[in-house]
Design goal:
The chain contains 14 helices and 13 strands. The chain is α/β, with parallel strands linked by helices. The strands form two sheets. A seven-stranded parallel beta sheet has the order 3-2-1-4-5-6-7, with helices on both faces. Strands 10-9-8-11-12-13 form a six-stranded parallel beta sheet. Strand 8, helix 7 and strand 9 (280-285) form a beta-alpha-beta unit. The chain is globular, with a radius of gyration of 22 Å.
């Protein structure tokens, strides 16, 4: 932090909000050792307390929510007190669960309630999906810290990689969850931890994605008022290139348009025409870290943009939506790895493959080996993939079946397996 960054923050957010940001960060930083050290010295681990922590401002999503819901459904909250740390506590005043508390952590100003540090220090189990935000830096002996993580994809992630930032705190866990055997290798190198800390059990959110009760017609109607039961649904989930985060090499990648393989609005119109002709609903989901997108769907009949705000307002879980899709478009993102479990067509949009290789790199020496789907390097191949999905053609089924055992360990009951593995 320097005077220039402070001036920039105050200019962008105004005196009040900028001042609150620095006050809350300062108070949280000061209170962490005070509360944490006192708790460790005067309290012991509570054998019947579980803490969940998701990514900031994305409170009730992803693996943390998936595991939390399972524990509540199965009555674990009869035995355990569950603490769910959230950025916007007011959103949860109507969510009532027995023996569950919502506690403020990482709000929009960076504020952490002292209670968050106390619960983070005394919990028997501390689960997080992105990082722990140091909420359990000080913890009582006997705590089990579990990194549920947010996905294993193709992006380079070794300690030697100078094009991504590293944090030693990311390695402070007892166990971390990955999809399958090949990622036990890559993540043990990334986190510099023994492989016996890596649990290749698959993610809790997979139970949402694979739920046979997911209904495509109901979900599309709920989100968009789309009622055509014959429609093929394709979701496009590119990883970020430009983000507000610093230190990532892919921030230097320049694309002609906000989506790879697309040159501009004219191409988007052509995609819309093709989707209408093939009765495809193309849903485009921006990466949470991506900046600089217009996200305009004005004038489109068969293209819709999916946002975090839309999903939250309609109470639709992203992985339930993914689970009803007939095809996926992605690139180097972990969603492509997850989608392999559905055994449906995947299109890998790789127009910036060489740029990405130089800017960020890949976790695999030969990433294409682990991409069982159509490789898309230009707009014509993008259209061809959509046409194949519309016509019911699946060109890479055999390749998916070949890589599945390496990339995934299980195919059902992910939350139950994890709970049993940890002895809950």
């Amino acid at each position: 932090m320097n005077i220039q960054s402070i001036k920039k923050k105050l200019k962008e957010e105004g005196l009040f909000h900028g001042g609150m940001y620095y006050f809350c960060h300062f108070f949280s930083k000061v209170s962490l050792p005070l509360v944490g050290k006192w708790t460790v010295n005067h309290r012991s681990v509570c054998e019947t307390r579980i803490v969940f922590k998701n990514r900031e401002m994305q409170d009730f999503t992803d693996n943390a929510r998936a595991l939390f819901e399972y524990l509540v459904e199965k009555g674990y909250n009869e035995k355990y007190q569950i603490i769910y740390m959230v950025s916007e506590k007011k959103k949860f005043k109507y969510r009532k669960y027995k023996n569950v508390k919502f506690v403020t952590a990482e709000n929009r100003y960076g504020w952490n309630s002292p209670r968050a540090y106390y619960y983070g220090a005394t919990a028997k189990y501390f689960f997080y999906t992105n990082n722990s935000a140091d909420l359990n830096r000080y913890h009582c002996p006997g705590q089990v810290t579990v990194n549920l993580w947010h996905g294993c994809g193709y992006k380079g992630a070794t300690r030697a990689n100078k094009n991504i930032p590293h944090s030693d705190s990311m390695s402070y866990f007892d166990y971390a969850v990955v999809p399958g055997p090949v990622f036990a290798e890559t993540k043990s190198e990334y986190w510099q931890c023994p492989k016996d800390k890596i649990l290749p059990l698959g993610y809790p959110r997979y139970d949402w994605m694979l739920d046979k009760d997911n209904n495509k017609t109901e979900l599309l109607d709920k989100l968009f008022g789309w009622k055509d039961e014959e429609t093929k649904a394709v979701i496009w989930m590119p990883t970020f290139r430009k983000s507000s985060l610093t230190g990532y090499g892919e921030n230097d990648i320049e694309l002609p348009y906000e989506l790879p393989a697309v040159e501009g609005p004219g191409d988007m119109k052509k995609l819309d025409d093709l989707c209408r002709d093939k009765n495809i609903l193309l849903m485009i989901k921006k990466h949470p870290l991506q900046i600089g997108w217009s996200g305009s769907q004005e004038g489109f009949t068969n293209i819709r943009y999916v946002t975090e705000e839309l999903l939250e307002s309609k109470d639709v879980l992203l992985y339930r939506l993914v689970g009803v899709c007939d095809g996926l478009l992605s690139d180097y993102s972990s969603i492509a790895v997850d989608y392999i479990l559905l055994d449906r067509p995947i299109g890998f949009v790789l127009t910036d493959f060489e740029m990405y290789k130089n800017a960020r790199g890949f976790v695999f020496e030969d990433p294409l080996k682990y991409m069982p789907g159509e490789k898309i390097y230009d707009f014509s191949q993008l259209k061809a993939f959509l046409a194949h999905v519309g016509d019911g053609e699946d060109l890479f089924a055999e390749e998916r079946h070949q890589v599945l055992p390496e990339m995934h360990s299980c195919t059902d009951n992910y939350r139950k397996r994890l709970a049993e593995q940890l002895g809950l």
